[in-house]
Structure formats: C-alpha cells, structure tokens
Amino acid sequence: MKTRTLGVLLALGAAVLAGCSSVPPTNVHQPMTARPAPRPDNVSSNGAIFNAATSRPLFEDRRARYVGDTLTISITENTSASTNSSSSANRASSISAAVPTVTGLPGKNFQGIGLSAETENDFAGKGASAAKNVFTGTITVTVIEVLENGNLLVSGEKQVAIGQGQEYIRLSGVVNPTFISATNTIASSRVADARVEYKESGYISEAQVMGWLARFFLTFLPF
C-alpha cells in the first residue's frame, strides 16, 4: 500500500514538473518548419558538374519561393488605438395645485391649502480607453507550403534561453513573393494572416499567472 501511494506521489510530482517546463501553446500555422522537397531529376547522372535537380539559373536571385526556403521577416508591429465617449441627460418637472374658496360644499377645512412639487434628474457619463503595442525584431521563417497562386505560407520559431526562463518568438503568415526584397527580407506589415507571438516559460512567467482556484471563484462570484 505504501509503495502504491509513493508511486502515485512520484507520478503527480513528475506531472507538475512537466507542466512547469512545458512549452507554451501556439496559434501559428503548423508545422513551424519544413524540409525542401526533392526535385525530379530528368537528366541521368553522367558525372558532370551541372545537376539539373539541384541547380538554379545563374542570374536568378535568392528570394524564397520553394518549400524549405528561408525568409527573414522584420517585425515592426506598432499599433495604437484610443476611444473617448461622453453622454449627459437632464430632466426637470414641476407641479402645483391649490384649493380655492369653498362655498356651499363640504370640505371647508381644506380651503386655502396649496400643493407644489418639483423633480429634477441629471445624468452624466464619460468613458475612455487606450491601448498601445510595440514589437520589433527579426526572425527567419521557413516556407512550409506554396499556394496555387504562388503565395508562400511561412512559419518559424526562435527560442532564447535566459537564466531560468525561456522565450519563444513565433511568426506565421502568407507572403506575396513580389513584396520580398532583393536581400530576401520582408516587413511583417506585408504578411497576410500574420500571427505573431512572444511568450515565456519558467517560474518568473508562472508567477504572473492567476492560480486556477482563484480563476474558478472569479468566474461566478458577484463581488
């Protein structure tokens, strides 16, 4: 019995440690790399230096266009948004009534009584919101698919280990080859369906996350 309990505790400890060191999930296109596909060799190998299966034209540039080619993307994401709103309402009303002279009728005790009432409602509301995000850097991605119209589906990841933590920079999207410069680079603003991620793993990043039990109570507590 003790052996079984110890085994369960060791399994739970291993699961916890695995969860602490796990790679953050991603939303970029998969896979994040691809090997170049072999090209058909229509020329039999006769010992010559020229090989039609692996050669490129002499005056062709080195821009990415095949599966497995690499492409450098300059990340220049700078977005800002702000909104302001205000509203106001005002309503006022008054009423007055008086009992005139009563002659020949009961109710003389109410004679000369006056009644007046006034109400006023005011409402004013204001709201403001602002957000700004800046992300700069470079990352080299791999062509994972060539679409039928010639566009390139690219995806890539960069891992940087600093101390006890690890940083993950990921990017994927669709690139139009005509936008690629002669140095085989392109700005992230020209990448369609771009998915840019910057995530961390380690105890420092985990300390910034609310615990699961606190999130559970936060979902239904009214205060």
TrEMBL record:
Family: Belongs to the FlgH family.
Lineage start: Bacteria, Pseudomonadati, Pseudomonadota, Betaproteobacteria, Candidatus Proximibacter
Signal peptide positions (record): 1-20
Location in the cell: Cell outer membrane; Bacterial flagellum basal body; Membrane
Sequence segments annotated as region (Disordered): 26-47
Biological processes per GO annotation: bacterial-type flagellum-dependent cell motility
Name of the protein this chain belongs to: Flagellar L-ring protein
InterPro entries found in the cross-reference section: Flag_Lring (IPR000527)
Quaternary structure note: The basal body constitutes a major portion of the flagellar organelle and consists of four rings (L,P,S, and M) mounted on a central rod.
Entry function: Assembles around the rod to form the L-ring and probably protects the motor/basal body from shearing forces during rotation.
Source organism superkingdom: Bacteria
Keywords: Bacterial flagellum, Cell outer membrane, Cell projection, Cilium, Flagellum, Lipoprotein, Membrane, Signal
GO CC annotation: bacterial-type flagellum basal body, distal rod, L ring; cell outer membrane
Encoding gene per record: flgH
Organism this protein belongs to: Candidatus Proximibacter danicus
A molecular function GO annotation: cytoskeletal motor activity
Keyword Signal: yes
Membrane topology label: Lipid-anchor
